[in-house]
Design brief:
The chain has two domains: 74 residues, Winged helix-like DNA-binding domain superfamily/Winged helix DNA-binding domain (Arc Repressor Mutant, subunit A, Orthogonal Bundle); 80 residues, Beta Polymerase, domain 2 (2-Layer Sandwich). The strands form two sheets. Strands 6-5-4-7 form a four-stranded mixed beta sheet. The chain has 181 residues and is α+β, with helices and mostly antiparallel strands. The protein contains eight helices and seven strands, in the order H-H-E-H-H-E-E-H-E-E-H-E-H-H-E.
Amino acid sequence: MLKSLFSSSIRADVLSLLLNSPDEKFYVREIAKLLRKNPSGVKRELDKLEEMGIVTSEKVANLKYFQADKESSLFSELKELIAKSLGLPGALKSLLRANDVKIAFIYGPYADDEDVATVDLLVVGPSTPALLMGLKNFERKFQKTINCTVLDEEDYRAKKRKDAGIKRILTGKRIPLLGRA
């Protein structure tokens, strides 16, 4: 729905990233890498969003950084629209990409399409304050408790081979968010 509302899937992805990380500043190539999109397409959409007053930019040395304009009259409405159209998995995906997560998936009852109050999330990557704060914000926004297990890559590889709990999770139903488990 979001991609058809906007004229470009790149614009929808850029908006999702920036609006779900409103205090973060990103440069064009960083956004392109996070979203796995062409930098020239990302730049074009950022320029259009800046013209519309939805994002702001700041030049530091030779890099131009972009972030959501929290003062924009459309900020809260667009953020709410993105949350509703992407749902929890889509919103989580944007947050996880912005925090350099390599692999992430939802498992357990939520992945089995059960309407539950708790979401089990496995994350392979760094446990950053921004990630933890973002998860707390999503708990409030979606009215769900997020049980997040964060493992570094080395620990994940070791547990994937030997840990019965991780093996059980990997053989069960999952909602992939990033990377391949």
